[in-house]
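Troubleshooting log. The previous run stalled partway through. Resubmitting the same two chains, unchanged.
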Amino acid sequence: MITAIRDAWVITQDPQRRILRGDVVIDGERIVSVGGEYKGSADKEIKASGDVVMPGLINTHTHVAMSVMKGVVDDIPFPEFLDKVFKIDSDRTDKDLDIGTKIGCAEMMRSGTTTFVDLYYSEDVIAKAAMEAGIRGVLCWCVLDEEMTTQKGNPLQNCKRFYDSFKEKRKIMPGVGLQGVYVCGEETCRGAKEFSDEKKIPLTFHLSETRGEVNEHRKKTGKRPAEWLNDVGIFGERSIAAHSAWLTLNEVRAMGRAGMSISTCPTSNMKLATGGVAPIPEFIEYGVNTTIGTDGSTTNNSLDMMAEMKTLGLLQKSSRWDPTVAKAQELLDFATVNAAKAIGMQSSLGSIEAGKYADIVILNGGSPNIRPLLPENMISNIVYSGSSSNVKTVICQGDIVMEDGRINTIDEAEILSRSEEMWRSLCLR
Amino acid sequence: MITAIRDAWVITQDPQRRILRGDVVIDGERIVSVGGEYKGSADKEIKASGDVVMPGLINTHTHVAMSVMKGVVDDIPFPEFLDKVFKIDSDRTDKDLDIGTKIGCAEMMRSGTTTFVDLYYSEDVIAKAAMEAGIRGVLCWCVLDEEMTTQKGNPLQNCKRFYDSFKEKRKIMPGVGLQGVYVCGEETCRGAKEFSDEKKIPLTFHLSETRGEVNEHRKKTGKRPAEWLNDVGIFGERSIAAHSAWLTLNEVRAMGRAGMSISTCPTSNMKLATGGVAPIPEFIEYGVNTTIGTDGSTTNNSLDMMAEMKTLGLLQKSSRWDPTVAKAQELLDFATVNAAKAIGMQSSLGSIEAGKYADIVILNGGSPNIRPLLPENMISNIVYSGSSSNVKTVICQGDIVMEDGRINTIDEAEILSRSEEMWRSLCLR
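Second attempt completed without errors. Output:
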């Protein structure tokens, strides 16, 4: 099956960061040619004259199933927020996890995301829903100390069972999650890291999101969370630390030496007023691979990576009093090539190049908010002027999951029609 | 001509902030009934079952004609930014002002804005373009000292001439602008204020956007800009101060006593890294009427009020380390009822109530990013989860300017097709 996308602007994100004009051709799951005019025949033609083709965005930190819990805990103090969310989280059913995941996947497709890294329990339910939706899930089962969890059985064993059942599924990559140092002792952390190393799968965890977390861990152990995790041996090239807003320069250096990744979540940190700002310029300087996450729908409250790139730029520039930090091209890199590297898929995702998976977003070039549109201002316009309203067609691993604004994979209206009842039963108690 | 919008969720923004379910009926330019089922016949039926009807958003600070200059001055230091923008600004033609305004108006319609306050020169050209686009312009001709301007003739006389020619035009309200204390001496300021008082029209000006502006004015006059403007007599109930990020509490109190309005521009301030954060909780405490502006396309770079409400909330919460400031309902109030008051139209704009102008936005209730959607989470979902992608239909003073994603008033494709050439001739020199 050959699909030809015709006459588009192509933001390749290749090593030279070229912007080309021409066709992108897909054979099955993979891209076979980029730029120029494709003279062969195609089974499917996508007219994209003047539209923008870019790599599918990669959201490296979310809790997708929480999408059914929107708007329940806004504008309140952080401790009250945590109480409410944990209470709801512990009462969820497979049915509302399924609906929540599908709502979140629909929202992500509609805002140009083709791959997401998830950290939650019941990733088996989430995996099935994501497979129906047709986008790629890097699904990290949340591991924590057995006495701290509401999961049935041992969390690490649950994670391993999930890995065994889903490791061969298309567009699903099972991973390992750690909730955070506040509920994960040394043995739990080591077990998770060993399993991640054994299977060569991502290990993601919350790190230094709040000042309280840092202070309490230091009181308990004499070390800050990142120092402690480094000493326990958790940092490595498959590690992705989410938030990472309250760090010292020594911690950043250690993370860089480990060759690890961070997922910065600017909207979540700002909305919860956790105070810290992830030190992006230092991450870059010391070689920490920087990526972006939306976090979940109770803290953001959207899963929109188009918006998140801009918000990250705004937060970095404003908090550093320096408009030259977090440039447009860097912000787009965080959400594409860097994120592909974080999940170990740099050779098959993150750019529009022959041989890579066809994970592609087409933006409507007829949108006034990104015009005038020229190679000279294209990256700026996508990052600073673009929005989810520009997303027209989305392709994940060769499958056209959304076309001309219509989702092809799941029955969006039917799913949404069941969401209000679930909100009431989860949130109105 | 009767138009009936059927079976929607209606965010009325009335004094009780009611959310109703039912019909909204428009007769000509005005709303005649809200909520319940309308039994009469209508010339035009708009099916909106489960959609969200809300007041058209009001952008209280922009330079709409700059929409043709997107992406030319990003990620660079502020002095370099100013040099480049002023250079381009002084070289513009009526033709590119016209195209720029229409692109900006299209972008604003597509993101739910029905009224904008503009500060620029050549407001006559901008007025004609806005009238074609069909949204409401409060167009404040920029007044500054004659020796500081590239305008032909005396700026205040130009402003008066503009007022005389456009004061009776539908959906156009001429106003007075002042560039800022750095190019406006006492006499210029007084002349502008007198004209605003005489005609009872808005007076808007940049105020304390940067620390440099404050320091230089204090060196020159011994007073901070807001102190000085207050002493010169510029503050009053028709005054709208844009930015207003570097203020003392005494200045805020003086602004409150004057009953004036501010237009905070969070994205612009963050992107330019001007450092200051507008003191919104203090504005509220001391009775300064708070509203929101996007600023122009070279600093934001979008004119999207759906995004701007959220960004303001994020900036306020994060900079105050307090998630309870700038609540969702307040943010929506800033962009509707407060903004209507700022332009002196509180009796005819800002809410969905019988007797007011039909300035209405319909959001697609079938969008996953705002679902589940219930009265309990509706305001949160619009402000924190909503985006321009949800905007479906836009009505301004009874005219359906956009319907089901299609702009009815101007030929968008034709206008956009001419924008690249203009960008090249303005920006590539």
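Takeaways: The radius of gyration of chain B is 21 Å. The first strand of chain B starts at residue 2 and ends at 11.
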